Each structure stands twice: as structure tokens, then as C-alpha cells.
Amino acid sequence: MSDLPEPDLAREWLATMMLIRRFEERAGEMYARAKIGGFLHLSIGEEATIVGSARALRDSDYLISTYRSHGHALVRGTPPENVMAELFGRVDGCSHGRGGSMHMFDLARRFMGGYGIVGGNLPIAAGIGLASDYKGSEDITLCTFGDGASNQGTFGETLNLAALWRLPVVFMVTNNQFGMGTALRRHSAVTDLQRKGESLGVPGMRCDGMDVLDTHAVLSEAVERVREDRRPVLVEAVTYRFRGHSMADPEQYRTKEEVAEWRARDPIPAFAERLIAEGVIDEAERERMDADALARVDAAVEFADASPFPAAESLHDDIYVLDPQTHGWYSVETTPERGEDSPEAAEPAAAAEESEIPQQLTHALAAGEDSSEHAGGMGAAGEAPEDG
Question: What distance in Å separates the CA atoms of residue 270 and residue 134, rounded to the nearest whole number?
Fold first, then answer.
């Protein structure tokens, strides 16, 4: 059994887990009330994995997550008001309302974001690790991903490169037993996920992701090994999500008995009872901490609901980086006056007349018409037609 941290730290860990739990519960309610659009992936049940791993990091270290990222933003210190506002798609969100549930981001706190593509954050983590070494810093990167992502090509490619280049990255696979609705044993030939990096030169470790103390102890060891040796490590955190893959998940792939068995190991009451047993808090303080978490989440909902939506004219902000040497008004301009009769639209046609492009294709390009009859099945502007 792992030792407790000092009392103030222990209280902070419990308070943060409570905040994440209450935040996620309220986010689910707001989704049901259509305050939140798109997808919503909740981390209820995984709070010990989130808090235990993040508290093994220094403030200067980097954390990069998956689409299940609300808790990671909160644990790095992003105010719940800004996280909730992001879920609501409002300008005061941590990504200014443009990312939503799957794309939280907070550079000031070195939370490098959530990513909607399964396994898409792995190569980015390697790049961050490379940047740390390039700058000569001691910073390491913690990259979290799900068990399903360990079957993606980016997993093998990234771990191989990280081992080859000795990149300071702790890869943590959050094994919550399911890749979406597919059980681990049905989607992975190797179910001992900590071993998946061995053939690529990345040693493995495992922690009980339902125990914040064990998670913190194992991740602390992994972080220090990576920081000192400048070599990657893979950690498997065995945990469970109490809710479905997303709010749209009917959960027909697992039994109520299985969920109840894991709920009996709920990491929040388990840690709270340990603190009570060792005299760090009492029952009244536990109730007070939970009430504080609820109050903070209620305030976050009020803040998010009062925050405005992004202005319509900002639709193309932060998409392209344009300067005086960069041409291409068509990438950001939507006004009708720049149509086919404008001088800008005529320039491609004029240039094409001096080339060997057939005259018929030139007219089609200038007018923006489908030129498939003149270019062997190619679409307008020479692009291949989309699949049905």
C-alpha cells in the first residue's frame, strides 16, 4: 500500500478528483439539455488516473491528451469556467469556443490539448519531446491515450522513433477495458499493454488506475527515469469508465453487473475513506469539499451560459496565416463581389491562356465549373471528385 502524501497535498488531490467528477456529471446534464453540441466523452471513473499522473509532473512539463480531455484541462489548472464555456462553444472557452469537448487547450499551463483522432496525439508528443531536447531543457512530456489507440499505426511509429531518438516522453495508455464498444481482449492480441512497446525499445510499467496513490507512485518513477535517462517509458494504467464511450453510447456491449463491480472500486470514496482512516480529514470535511466542488461547477455553468458565442465575422480567424507575400483571398473571403467577373478571378484564366492547357479547360477553371469532361474525370479546378 502506497504512503499518503503530506496532508495538504492529499486534500488537494481529493478535491481535484471531486471537481472533475462533479464537472463531468454536470457536463452530461448540460449535453442532455442541448447546451453542449457535438460529441461528449466523459471520464467518470478515471479521476485517479488523471490526478495521480498529472501530479507526478512539474509545472514546466507538458501534458497531451485525447478526446476525453476535460479532466486533464482541470487538473492542469484551467479554470472550470473556461472549460465549461468551451463545451458551450462560447468565446470565453479555453479554445475560444472553437474546439469544443475534444479540443481543449491551454498553452500557458502546458496542456497541449485533446485530439479527436485516435492516436493522433502520439506523434505530436514526440515532437514536443524533441523540442525539449533541442532547447536543452529538462522538461518531459506525458502523453495519454486509450487502449484502442495502442493498435494504431501511430503507436508503433511514434514509440519506435522516440526510442531511436531518445525522446523524453512518458506514454501512458489508459486501459479502460474498451476501445469504444469493443472489449480489450477482442481488439488487441496482446492484452498486457505495458509490454506493447518492448519490441520497439520502450520498457513498460503498470499502475492501478483506480488508486490515485499507486498511479502517482508509478508515474513518479516513470517521470524521473525519463527525465534522467532521456528515454521513453510506456505505462499502462488499468482503469474503467463508468459511463459509455460517449453520451451517444447505448452501452450494449457490457453488463450492469460488470459496471457495478468496477463502481465498487470508485477511486474517489476509496481515497476519501483512506484519508478519514488516517485522520487527514473527517466526514464533515469530505462533505464540505464535495459541496465546494458542486458550487464551483454551478458557477462554471452560469459563466458559460452568460458568455457570448463567437461573432460570425470571426469564422475564419486563426485558420490561415496570411502576410503581404501570401496570396489567396479565396481561402478566407466569402463575399459575393469576388465572383467570376472580378479581376482576381480572371487572373487564373489569363495565365492559363499563355500555357498549354486546353482552351476549354481554361474556361472551366475560370468559371469554377466542373471540367470532368475535359480532364479525364477530374472535377472543378482539377480536383478529383469526392467519393459518394
Answer: 42
Considering the domain architecture, whether residues 280 and 324 belong to the same structural domain is answered as no
Structure confidence by residue, pLDDT tens digits, 164-206? 999 999 999 999 888 888 888 889 888 899 999 999 999 999 9
pLDDT at residue number 249: 79
For the whole prediction, is pTM greater than 0.70?
Answer: yes
Closest CA to 75 of 32, 99, 46: 46
At 53, which helix (H) or strand (E)? helix 47-54
268 and 370, same domain (yes or no):
no
Structural domain contains residue 315: no
**Number of CB atoms found within 10 A of residue 280's CB:** 19
**What per-residue confidence (pLDDT) applies to 323?**
66
- Backbone angles phi and psi of 202, in degrees to 5: -115, 110
The amino acid sitting at 54 is A
Long-range interactions of 3-8: CB distance < 8 A, separation 24+: 3/213, 4/213, 4/274, 4/275, 4/278, 4/280, 5/216, 7/280
**Do 324 and 300 reside in the same domain of the chain?**
no
Q: Does residue 314 lie within any of the structural domains? A: no
17 contacts 271 by C-beta, under 8 angstroms: yes
Measured from the Cβ of residue 6, the count of other Cβ atoms closer than 10 Å reads 9
Residue range(s) defining the domain that contains residue 60: 7-306
Rounded-to-integer distance, Cα 162 and Cα 133, Å: 12
For residue 245, the surrounding DSSP H or E stretch is none
Answer yes or no: are the C-beta atoms of 141 and 110 closer than 8 Å: no
Q: How would you classify residue 77: left for phi > 0, otherwise alpha for psi between -120 and 50, otherwise beta?
A: left
**Is 313 inside a domain boundary?**
no
Q: Are residues 104 and 169 in the same domain?
A: yes
